[in-house]
Amino acid sequence: MLTVKDLRVSFGAAEAVRGIDFTVVEGEILALVGESGSGKSVTARALLGLLPPTATVGGSATLGDRELIGADEESLLEVRGSQIAMVFQEPATALNPVHTVGWQIAAVLRAHRSLSRTQARQEAVRLLDLVGIPDPGTRVRHYPHQLSGGQKQRVVIALALANNPRLIIADEPTTALDVTVQAEILSLLRDLRDRLGTAILLITHNMGVVADLADRVAVMHQGILVEQAPVEDLFARPTRAYTQALLAAVPRLGHRTPSSPVSAVDALRLDQVVVRYKDFVALDGVDLRIAQGEVVGLVGESGSGKSTLGKVAAGLLHPASGTVSLLGGDPSASRDRLGFIFQDPAGSLNPRMSISDCVGEPLRIHRTLRGRPYHNRVAELLDAVQLPRGYARRRPRELSGGQRQRVGIARALALNPGLLIADEPTSALDVSVQAAVLELLTSLQRTLGFACLFISHDLAVVDSLAHRVTVLHRGQVVEEGPHHEVLRTPTADYTRRLVAAVPIPDPVEQRRRTREVAPVT
Amino acid sequence: MTRYVLRRAPSALVVLWLSSVLIFLVLRAIPGDAATAMAGPDATPETIAAIRHDLGLDLPVVTQYLHWLGGLFTGDLGRSYLIGGDIADLVGTGLGNTVVLTATALLIAVLIALGLGPLWAATRNRWVDRVLTAFHTAAVALPTFVTGVVLIIVFGVFFRVLPTGGIPPKGMVDRLDITAQYLVLPAVCLALPVAGVLTGFLAETLRGELRQDYVTTVLAAGVRRRAVVYRHALRGALPVAITTLGLQTGALLGGAVLVESIFSWPGLGLLVEQGITRRDYPLVQVLLMLSVTVFVLVQLLTDVIHAALDPRIRLGAQS
């Protein structure tokens, strides 16, 4: 149906896509897998002529007998939406905030078909029903901000389905969603393919999602397709070194042996902590203790209170009731014994400061060191996170995402912290980079012996380095215990659902699980 | 919506009250009071005292303030010292003329901005972009007294197609075509700076909207670029443009003083100019209070429109 031959895209001198060939046949799900900058999203946009005018596109892409590359705007308008439609990563921004979802679906319907307002409205209700939105007759009048993240993504899918396209390009359709919501959206996409026969070009970096949904996989690296194979073959017998490395870097649940108990002295202790934002109870009587030298993984979905708990532990937020003790004292008094790693390495480093200034900032604030010992310490920290000392004078923007997060770690370690709080430290990173950063963090923890509160939504990441795991749901601890017990044999109902929702990066196993669990549409 | 307005109303009232105190005090802080100015340079202290008593200026300041505040509510604004006549009548006549002028200017500015803003934001033609950039810079940078004089020279003196000043002799509604002839030059002159600022803000906000993900969503669904700009993105850009417009009414009120002088348009602006040069404090006081009230009301209206346009404000951010 779709045949891509020698597709090339460049922005000035930079080549984003360097001659790729692939085909998508009717009703098939082809996954285009790669890390950031591999050219997968650029490929998708090139097919629909949605690249900025600065891009040069060459090669060929034919849909049936229609050439897409270099086609004029009029014929592309006929293709967009009615032949090929797109689903995007971030449902929160993919919908217009100032129009109702019904208005938006109707606008897209009327771009291709001559429908009256009433007909378009009826059709919008039917589409919302098709993608599993409850009470579509009411929801059609709602604005995006009145819907949940998963519902918004369903609306985006309804927009894509509006004009019965033969192919849907789904660009990271579940990356911005919680795992349980991700599982629902994946099952919806699979269901739509089965019912409507729509082919899907799935663009993703998540191997679990690939294993769950794809029929065939094309692996992309630096603008080139390195390997194409049916999904079972690719996971069982990857032939190229890059694919092998990519698969090896994917964190998996249950691959680490249980770890031994640690010190009996508390680094952090929370007793019956309650935090309220106006009427909303963010933390509802939370107990948590982290022993010295222990890594506790805190998992939960968005809105569960994870980050709030991190702020309470750091003394940035005072609980309405309950007690917090950090290294045996008040958290605000022990700031110089605390390190914090943030999610977004780009946003948490001051772009106007040099790398050495960023790393040394805690030392300057607490006036611990000055002069030569200060510079020695900064150099030592850069060594510890395996960054060349020559980087000291660079600015954050000159570093890659992974390197910037190493700077973040070096800064967090500057004061020799007794407790390190890491809030989603690897969620903004590619899997291979994530693997390296996690490995670094684990080895630093072993050698330096700091306690760590590791906050993450990714269960496999937590499983790879935590001693104990605490599961947070709607501000309450629903389960707590050694990592291998909580994540492999969960007792709480919510934890069980959470663990079941994580797609396993193994197509055979994942499909067996999907058949067992009833579809959640 | 009513609740939203009620929530904003108290702060507007406080602003109005504080302004009334400020205006009253500032005019009394100017050296040389009104009685001295009225009596002329050769007057004896007795004459000045008599005038002062006549005007109530010998009463305690608080009493004077309360009298004035009471007058504002009852419409008894007192008499103008020097121009003569009842202040309420003077202001009433001027107000009508000024409203006609500023409303026309506002309409012209909005039409220009709505026409050129989206064009400027969406164009990929380098020449269109250059011409609009030049228009924007000129409209924002040229002061009213320059454009006003240029307009008069070109259309009133050189081509002799339009009157150079004054208002239609038989009133605004008698012959609308004649009214339009008198109105066009001062209104355009007053509108240009506002149109420039508004076009710039609208284009810039719209460019931001066009970079949003939802624009890619509808483009990928096959909606035409033109429809995306006008139907999808413009609505999101309007709240900022309306806020700018609200703030620009200040510029419009200030601009009216100059434009009315240049074109001899007998409105409030001309009255303010005369009142200040002749130290007619009771008149100036009322005119200032009126401008502040108009400005506060416009801000309130801006917020209401803002809320009406953005469902996230109107409906609250609950999910």
Structure description:
The complex is a heterodimer of chains A (521) and B (319). Chain A is 38% helix and 25% strand. By secondary structure, chain A is an alpha/beta fold. The longest helix of chain A has 18 residues. Chain A is globular. The relative contact order of chain B is 0.14. Chain B is globular and about 85 Å long. The interface between A and B is medium-sized, with 37 and 27 residues.
In brief, what are we looking at here?
The complex is a heterodimer of chains A (521) and B (319). By secondary structure, chain A is of the alpha/beta class. Helix content of chain A is 38%, strand content 25%.
* Helix proportion of chain A: 25-40%
Number of domains of chain B: 2
How many strand segments of chain B?
A: 0
What's the end-to-end separation of chain B, in Å?
19 Å
Number of helices of chain A: 20
The CATH architecture assignment of the largest domain in chain B turns out to be Orthogonal Bundle
Rg estimate of chain A, integer Å: 25 Å
How can the largest sheet of chain A be summarized?
Answer: 6 strands, mixed
Order of helices and strands of chain B: HHHHHHHHHHHHH
* Helix/sheet category of chain A: alpha/beta
CATH topology of the domain at 294-501 in chain A: Rossmann fold
CATH class of the largest domain in chain B: Mainly Alpha
- Residue windows where pLDDT falls under 50 for at least 5 positions of chain A: none
List the chains of the largest interface with their residue counts: A-B, 37 and 27 residues
Residue share in β-strands of chain B: under 5%
Strands ordered across the widest β-sheet of chain A: 6-7-8-3-9-10
| Rg for CA atoms of chain B | 24 Å
The rounded distance between the terminal residues' Cα atoms of chain A is: 29 Å
Oligomer: heterodimer
